[in-house]
Amino acid sequence: MHYILVILLALALSASAFAKNCEVAIESDDAMKFSTAELRVDAGCREVKLTLRHVGRQATNVMGHNWVLAETKVLRSIAIAGMNEPDNGYLPKDDARVLAHTRVIGGGESDTVTFATDKLVAGGDYSFFCSYPGHWAVMKGKFVFGEPAVKKSE
Ligand code: ZN
To answer: What pLDDT score does 148 carry?
Structure first.
């Protein structure tokens, strides 16, 4: 029954070749910038683990950053509503449009958030941004919840 072994081997190989990308990391800095304009996770991820690092030196009250996930169409209105909520991480309270977020961090700090993807639709139009007042206009990018990217050779 060699063919069973062959099938099992093929399954094992394809599983490793298409290992899900469900963990992503991004950096922020004193220049009010994120390190990437696009984050990509596989649609098969039930959970996503996102780590935000602040590689600058400025304190939270000067150059604080967070990472917030929302549908692109509501990014602006969440950011504006959050400006007056410093005690809630510059996010509107109990707002279901906020799909995931880290806390606001300062230089040298990091924060990790793990969130379920059950509210996300594969191929949907999502963005991430920093909701610290004034930052969202430049600190934002695409969050792609879709097919895995072409595997890069390493
Ligand atoms: Zn920021």
So the answer is: 47
